[in-house]
Sequence to fold (381 residues):
Amino acid sequence: MPGKIILPGSTIGILGGGQLGRMTAIEGRKMGYRIICLDPTPDCPCGQVADDQIVAALDDVAAAIRLAERSDVLIYEFENIDVRLVEELERSYYLPQKSHVLSVAQNRILEKQQLEKAGFPVVPFVIVRNIEDLKIGTAQIGYPGVLKTATGGYDGKGQFVLNNPQDFSKAAELVQSHDNIWVLEKKISLTQEISVIVAREEAGGMAVYPVSENIHRENILHITVVPARISPQRESMAVEITRGIAQYFKLVGVLAVEFFVTPQGLLVNEIAPRPHNSGHYTLDACFTSQFEQLIRAVCGLPLGSTQLMTPAVMINILGSTLPKILENIPNFSGDVKIHLYGKHGNPAPKRKMGHLLFKTDCPVQTDKIIKKFWDDGQWVT
Ligand code: ADP
Ligand code: MG
Fold:
């Protein structure tokens, strides 16, 4: 069934006002949409570029309803938003992304169980509610393992690596001291990490972006290289799995699938039913960005071409690397695009503050850029 058509000139209400909302708002305004966001931080990254911002907590139901009343369509940009609020909004307002896939992606246990049930390859895992489970889990999974909070984790937060049995007591302490449920995963010896972003419209049509290769530092995305340096077989397998997942969840909007590449094949790490950091390259390197694509999907417009216009390398700018990168902006060539998200204050070292997008012409140049930013995550001259 085709969804509603929401034409430019209409208002898009965004739940959340971080950088994903900001980039979505910029793309939406280019097309002539009006944007209002809901976020507790005054003058938040999205609020700075939107027509208006409602300053309120993301679990403030009355404020969310005020946003909904002023909007023709609602979207969420923030994954850890209270799913009960999204459920309530979708009952009375137009929220085509819907709450279901969000509720699954928010919870690592549901996410892994559903993906496994649907036949997608996931990392071996066990659910850990208490120390007894942790004992059984470590016996089953072995070392090394990664203990992760089932909910609320992002950018590597809420994770603990158990390298050997000596780490058990620290993990047990964590399990005991937090009122959380955890998953214990096998720590995979991966050769690479890749991700694929897919857009799907209500009627079922899909558009898939080129596979990107992701390099993490301390569990945070640091560099994305596109096209990914993987075999055509791996590439088509990743695309096939991603399309399958979007279809399984009857996705409307944009979804990213993160994969671990191992010598034995691909494993799905996690999914995110929204634009993704590894897709920021699409703003400058693809005909249609992931943000425009989200708007197209929820507004019932035809999905745009995902064609890669140039090979590229994306470098994340974190709180720790921002000063050095700012200092070096005058030295950048015209092949570099600068994106800063307008976050206020003295940033935490691991806070995502912006990104750079380098247009590259050949693998040698790609390697050079990676090396430049690899050593200490800063601009190495
Ligand atoms: P987040 O929600 O914080 O992105 P992820 O589960 O994607 O959490 O973990 C962040 C990064 O940590 C991954 O991209 C990967 O580099 C590393 N990592 C997480 N789990 C594993 C694992 N089971 N084996 C190997 N590396 C892992
Ligand atoms: Mg991740």
